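@channel sequence for tomorrow's demo:
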Amino acid sequence: MTPDVRMIRLLMELRRHGIADTGVLSALETTPREMFVPEVFADRAFDNTALPIDEGQTISQPFIVAYMTQALELKPTHRVLEVGTGSGYQAAILAKLVKRVYTIERHAALQEQAVERFKKLHLFNIDARVSDGMRGWPGQAPFDRIIVTAAAREKPPAELLNQLVIKGSMVIPIDRGVDGQVLVRIRRTAHEFQSTDLLPVKFVPLLEGVAKNDGAVE
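structure tokens (generated this afternoon):
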């Protein structure tokens, strides 16, 4: 089966599961997921499944990437903050849909790999840095949208919420303990933050600090 056929099957599966935004589907179709997975898993890049990457992290399944992107309700003029660069796949999708993407990763090795992929794909509207994602990127705030690809414990970090523009929104997994993780969309109004549960998910935890090479945090 050729990659083109596998991509068509994947897109059809995403449509069946409610991904209707043509811009999101086009971004997935034109972003080679095989570039973002370890070579040993390249033959599974078109599968609708999460796959392991370096540093004990994962690349989310295409459905989750598409769903979270669609839930952001993006516009071409938007500036988007991503917390958790990982392989860089989600940032690459976002870069095809918005004006600028700012992405933060706590593992330097992952960030370096992602930046190389962005260069190869000529995605020059992505700014990437190694930093504590829970603190956001104050120097570039506020953001029209924020997407977090790791699960916060019980509630979103206040510093991230405060970096949203009025009428901006955030999509973030929240770990509710025995009730499991749920993907949540939070909209900021002039007076409050309004939260809506979207669907159950499973993400790595959102951790504070920057990882050292030995796995410790500084």
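heads up for whoever presents: The longest strand covers residues 164-175.
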